[in-house]
Amino acid sequence: MPRSLRSGNIYASPLPPPPRAIRPPAQNAIRNRDYELIGSMNIPMGLSRKKVSECHLEFLDIGPKDPEWYKDPERKNHCIFRLTFLHPLEDDTPYAPIGTRGVLLDLEGVDQQQDSCTAELIMSTFGYEGPHQRSMRVVKLRMGGERTVGDAVRIIRDTGLMPCRFDTPNEHLFGCRDFVSQLIYQLSRNKFLRLPADANTTIYDSFNYRYDMDDDPAIGYVPTPVGYAIFRASYQYTAINGINYHGTREFPWTSFSLCHWIEC
User: Fold this and answer.
1) pLDDT band for position 238 (50/70/90)?
2) 99: nearest Cα among 125, 127, 129, 123
3) How many CB atoms lie within 10 A of CB 98?
4) DSSP symbol at 236
5) Where do the segments described as Disordered lie (predicted)?
6) Residue 107 within any structural domain of the chain
7) Calculated CA dihedral for residues 88, 140, 38, 259, nearest 10 degrees
8) What is the pLDDT of residues 68-117, one digit of tens each?
9) DSSP string, 159-228
């Protein structure tokens, strides 16, 4: 409406601004989601704020070493890190579906070349309860207090664990267990985890073995010592007393930012 001033002049009031356009809501996830933790490692805010109640180290069976013999007792392993939410999701959200119970941290190889492979860290949501269906060994890790998924991501970023590169001359060699052992060390060092005094034997010793099958199902999986890791000399890793891979340590490469390779 018009406004009158003391001078008697009358001015028309400015038109109100147009209403903001309605932003369509983000589409809810109906299946588990994968997030690549690269660069600034941004993940959805809702996922970042989820409180974590439990963490587990898991060694998975990803098949026989001999692809022609599916009952081959010598198995290929893969190492992952599991974070379980304090409360599962009660609704579908843009970042994860209803019933999501936590996230997995999984180092995957991409961009395969003749003798090396670039690795990327994938955060995947999951909805099952308990260990992975292919799990051969599970180690529960004590939490260091109230922590969130975002706290773990910040530690990964701030400690330089990524980017990661490893050398792999054949399909039986991979860098996942070396990466996860460094991840656990850094999470403990930064108070995300609170490892026991005997962590060298109860936790880190698990990395010294590959887990194979036994003919007797009652015996389950049999540990077999793994070969020594080969780290690139420029990779800033921390030697962990409880991890004692057999063999001789070598530093044959000097290019930047390779993680390492080991027999999984």
Assistant:
1) confident
2) 127
3) 14
4) -
5) 1-25
6) yes
7) -170
8) 888 888 888 899 999 999 999 999 999 999 999 999 999 876 555 555 55
9) TT--SEEEE-SSTTEESHHHHHHHHHHHHHHTTSB---TTHHHHTGGGGGEEEEE-SSTTT-EEEEEPBP
Q: How far apart are CA 174 and CA 78, in angstroms?
A: 8
The residues facing 231 across adjacent strands are 260
Question: Is residue 75 in a domain?
Answer: yes
Domain of residue 121, residue span: 30-160+176-226
Question: 37 or 185: which carries more pLDDT confidence?
Answer: 185
What's the pTM value of the predicted model, to 2 decimals? 0.80
All residues at 6 or more sequence positions from 242 whose CB lies less than 8 Å from its CB, including other chains: 199, 200, 201, 203, 204, 205, 207
pLDDT in tens, 122-178: 999 999 999 999 999 999 999 999 999 999 999 999 988 876 665 554 444 457 888
Q: Is the pLDDT of residue 39 over 80?
A: no
Stretch 10-23: mean pLDDT, rounded? 73
Residues 83/55, Cβ–Cβ less than 8 Å: yes
* Domains held by the chain: number: 1
Decide if 12 is inside a domain: no
HSE (CB half, 13 Å, CA atoms) of 231? Answer: 13
85 touches 163 (CB < 8 A): no
Judge contact between 74 and 66, C-beta under 8 A: yes
Neighbours of 152 (CB within 10 A): 25
